Fold this protein.
Amino acid sequence: MGFIRGKIGLDVLTLIITYAALISIPIFNDRFMLYLASLFMIYTLFSMAYNIMFGYAGLLSFGHSLFFATGAYGTAIFILRVFDDSIVGLLVGASLATGLALAVGLLTLRHGKIYFAMLTLAFTMLFYALLFKWRSFTGGSDGLAGISRRCFIGSMLQLEVFYYFIFIIFLVLMWTLYVLDRSNLGLIIKALGSNEERVEFSGHSIVRYRMISFLISGSISGVAGSLYALLIRVVTPDLAYWTTAAEPLIMTLLGGSGYFLGPLVGSLIFVAITTAVARIAEMWQLILGMVLISILLGFRGGIMGVISKVWGRL
Amino acid sequence: MGEIVRVDGVTKKFGGFVALNRVSLSINEFETTSIIGPNGAGKTTLINVITGKLHPENGRIYLYGRDITGLPPSRRVMLGLNRTFQIINIFQNMTVYENILISALSQGKDNARETVDNVISRLKLSEYRDVKAFKLPHGLQRILELAIALATHPKILFLDEPTAGLNPAEKSSITSILEDLGSNISLVIVEHDMDVVFSLSKRVIVMHKGEVIADGKPQEISLDHRVKEVYLG
């Protein structure tokens, strides 16, 4: 595009390095690393999707767990009850999440920002209660287990195989998000986060662009949830709980919501902190809490903000 | 000269305060019109109601005979009605080019970049093209806001104190830009600076306490005894 200058090269470079690092992980022949790298990709997609609402459109959602859990449960229930195919299951999970984003968007996006935040929280807690209570369909508090990773191409039961499946989806979606970031649509969505009244008087409907952002955000959150279900092979109601909704927000704040790849950096740190510290003791929440407080008090731009200050103008 | 905008019996209240009291007026094509009056007269409220930022309790607004009272601002912009704000309203963290592009995109993708280039060269912003808006001096920010409005191809443009806070040089540069625009776009200006008002306007509307108390050619207005009363107390 050419009009957002300077950072283009760095974003592409970081993406390519990330792709290269992820594709070389299987060389180590370490299942735990494969698992962590898979989690990293899923969290990255989830928090990148989240940041379209938070960092771009300027809307704080406390309910993105709704779309993550819908993707996860949609895929799980479809595979267990309807047709045992991971790829079709993924598409079903993502479509359900998109459909739900449309419905929730119609009900919430016309309201003010605080109402939007509280309504999204209410919707995900409602969904949590539904997953919890509707035992015959959702398995209640036990959730649903035994999700296979079969598909029409072949079995992806081996994590070594499934890893490439996640990788391909990650590669395509991250590139799509990059193109969105540089597009006219991306510019208008970012403008929404910067000054809504100005967007309205530039001739664009605020509600319309909020809805477009919400649909993109919800559908990619759904894909992330669906991949999560396929990775863990179990789904439980806590996927819809508000703590799950807070995770992409935390990752985004860690990395820096004002940067295209902020959520990616945040996810990397999130996975690193939760695993590294959890191995020593169960203190990861304490450590994460302290990191988060120091970022919110001292480094509002997140890790990316710190890097770009040190680096000069990126 | 045809009528573009018609305001019909518009009332707007803020709590118990009546900001506009059954105001009716019409704005004619290419007849640069100034709205003047003391603070609190209802000038900005009138612009806010016409452009859709506020909704009136009573009365209707028509654009080319079409009732637009219930339309959101973005729809009015698409129908050819735009405005600038008293407090500069631009995307501070975006470049001059991006600021104008966003607005040009509402008129369709195909010609957007061409429109931006035209507006930039017309308002002599070329050398600031890639400068972030917050880095511009005050006067250029006002010009940028004007550029944003022009990129939507307005037929009628409301300017809320376009020279507020500007130094004399910036003031005269805005004034000459507006003088130039006035032959293609119908301008309605809320302004306190009487030099600006009398050099640009073909018609002056005087408001006081939410009502229109005088309406006519600049020379007539300057002689009107009620206007003198309002201004001199």
Remarks:
- Chain B has a mean pLDDT of 93.
- The first strand of chain B starts at residue 3 and ends at 14.
